[in-house]
Amino acid sequence: MVSQVSFTLAPRQRGYHVITREVLSQLPELPAVGLLHLFIQHTSAAITINEAADPDVLTDFESVFNHLVPENMPFLVHTLEGPDDMPAHIKAAMIGHSITVPITGGQLNLGTWQGIYLCEFRNRASGRRLIATIYA
Fold it and tell me: What does pLDDT average to over the chain?
């Protein structure tokens, strides 16, 4: 059996945000065993799984990615939507647009310290749309 829901996350400021609880609140009851596939419908934000226990990890991700892909690089051509837009596209391509999580015992089978991140790369973003597909 396959089920699918789409939902919009609350708008967030630029940065990395643990959204595991918000995602779970939008899902129907999970099967005993299966897979959750999450897809973000945007090109300037990403989702991933990483450390969710220490908030310093979120800050460090933001610092590293801003160092790797800074704003106002003089050779960028796609600049109509502001200096944060093309760097946001590059960062999103580096991290990715989807994740898959196993479901065990009716719960997401994440590791002890893991959480689902929204990686928001725009300075002024609206709520981000996700598609959740549950395979039982």
Answer: 97
